[in-house]
Structures are given as C-alpha cells and as structure tokens.
Specification:
By secondary structure, the protein is an alpha+beta fold. The chain has a four-stranded antiparallel sheet.
Length: 324
C-alpha cells in the first residue's frame, strides 16, 4: 500500500496529477453554483443579526432556579405584550433574553417579571441597551474594514508578484470564500454577531496566506524556460498546485483541529456563546478557503494568462514539439 509520502512525491514530480487546470470549466461551474446558492440563502432563510447590529434590549438572569427558556418568553410577553423575544442559555447556567427596543418603564417591568419567573432577586437580572445607531456604526466599520483589506491585498499582491492578473485571481478567490462562508452560516441559521464578523475577516487572512504560498510556487514554475521544461503554461500552473496540494491539506487540517476543539468543546459543551460565533465562522472558512485556492484562484489565474500572445506562442511551440 502506497504511503502518503510516496503520493506526495508523485504529485511533486508530476507522476501523479489532479486536473485543477485541465477541468477548470467544471470547477468554475461548481463555484458559480455555490456562490449563487450562498447569495440567495439569506433571502430563503433570512439573515439573523445579533442585537449589536439590530439594536434592542438585553437581559441576563444569573443563577436562575431553572433554565427553562419558556419561562422567559412568557414573562416578557406578560410584562410587555407583543415584544419580539429571543432566549438563549449561556454556559448552561444563565439565561440571556434579547428583545426589541424597550422604554425605561418597560425595562423595569421585564426585569421584575424575569426575576419572579426564575425565582431570583431583581439584582440578579442585568439589563443593557444597545441603540440602533451603534449597530449601524458596527456595520459601516465592518464594511470599511473589508474594503480596505481587499484594496490593500490587491495592491500588495500586484507589487509582490509583479502582475495584476495574479492579484485579481486572488481577490476573486477571497470574495468566493467570503460569500460561500456567509451563505453556509446563514443557511444553517446561525446568528451573525461582531464575533462572527471578526471570524470572517480572519479566514480572509488565512485564505490569503494559502493563496500566496500556492501562487509563489506557480510563479516559480512558470518562470522556468518553457523549452527546457516541456510544459505549457497551464501545465506548469497545474503542477504547482499539485506540488503544494499536500501542504495545503496539512495546513488546513492543523488549523481546523484546534478551531474544532474550541467549537465543539468550548462552545457546545461548556456553553461559551462568543466562542461559538467566532470559531464556527473560522472553521467553515478554513475548509472553504482551501477549496477556493485550489479550484478557483489558481485555475482562474491560468485562464487570465493563457491568452497573452507570448504565452500562447510558447504553448504552441511546446505542443508542436510534443507532437513531433
């Protein structure tokens, strides 16, 4: 039975090869379908934003006699009829209640009602308010941060690789990662919070790192003398992706394991809600980023360059010599 080391050596030397570039039409169709489904997912299921974005009131009941969430719903409805309520259990011992915006009098009524429902003193119920203006500021700053990140990424990659086409392919890959990750997040019904936004920006940085490593190998392969290598431009790109394939998989696994531990142990078992938001977005993003680099960014860069006259002529020479 062949070992992973032997398989990796065959990928590096070209004895074994996966057609990332040769079947790019298929991968592009799959990518487009995923992006379209991710784009319409919020309209099908709706995007659930946290109170930090929507604004509203939040109540935290510490050490309640019971963690029955229906008590909170009934208490809020009795105190302020018609109020939108979301109840969650925090750390398996506290109750968090989020409502639409309440007046001071309504806040006092809900506080007393929750204290009575969970058999605690009113001082054990902490009330806080987040105005819609704060949520709008968070949204605006997040979008500005994303725009600045993408602009700087495009500029730095264009300078480093000395071609805007490689930079453009990397940006398309980053957008693919962002859209698909948010689509999966929305489709699964998870709440988008500031912690989740931090996670989205974090996986963009991870995706950029993975793409840069692969593109650096692509630049190395495509800078070789074409006649000496005997490869077309697309074949050189495909070889570079295969040569970094094992490294990409290993890096993704190593990065995903601790994040999975945080997600499944820290958040789902211990009940740390903030860890759940950020770790889930990073966990999904790592998987999507690996796929995007291999199946979207690298084949797209090859497509951008293959139409250049010099590259087209060198490819024709290679194919002619191979046929002869």
């Amino acid at each position: 039975m062949r070992s992973m080391t032997d398989f990796g050596n065959d990928l590096y030397t070209g004895k074994a090869s996966f057609p990332f570039v040769g079947r790019r039409r298929t991968w592009f169709i799959v990518a487009i379908v995923l992006v379209v489904l991710s784009a319409i997912a919020p309209f099908l299921r709706g995007v659930e934003f946290s109170v930090e974005f929507t604004g509203g009131s939040q109540f935290l009941v510490s050490a309640p006699a019971s963690t029955d969430q229906s008590r909170a719903t009934e208490a809020v409805e009795e105190a302020v009829p018609g109020t939108t309520t979301k109840v969650t259990t925090v750390s398996n011992r506290d109750i968090r209640v989020q409502t639409s915006q309440l007046t001071d009098a309504e806040t006092h009524s809900v506080t007393d009602a929750l204290a009575a429902a969970y058999e605690v003193d009113a001082t054990e119920v902490t009330a806080s308010f987040i105005g819609p203006t704060w949520g709008q500021d968070v949204t605006r700053q997040s979008l500005w941060g994303l725009a600045i990140f993408l602009a700087l990424t495009f500029l730095i990659l264009a300078i480093y690789f000395r071609t805007w086409k490689m930079s453009a392919a990397a940006i398309v890959g980053l957008l693919d990662v962002l859209i698909v990750t948010i689509g999966i997040y929305s489709l699964c019904g998870f709440e988008i919070s500031p912690a989740a936004v931090i996670g989205f920006l974090t996986i963009l940085a991870y995706s950029l790192y993975d793409t840069t490593v692969v593109f650096d190998k692509i630049r190395e392969n495509t800078s070789e003398d074409v006649d000496a290598s005997g490869r077309t431009f697309g074949e050189s790109v495909n070889l570079a992706v295969n040569q970094t394939l094992i490294r990409s998989i290993n890096t993704s696994v190593v990065a995903a394991l601790p994040v999975a531990a945080i997600l499944f142990i820290g958040s789902l078992w211990l009940g740390a809600e903030t860890l759940s938001d950020i770790s889930l977005s990073i966990f999904v993003g790592i998987i999507v980023a690996t796929y995007s680099t291999l199946f979207v960014a690298a084949p797209l860069y090859s497509l951008f360059r293959e139409g250049e006259p010099a590259i087209r002529q060198s490819d024709e020479r290679v194919l002619t010599a191979r046929a002869g």
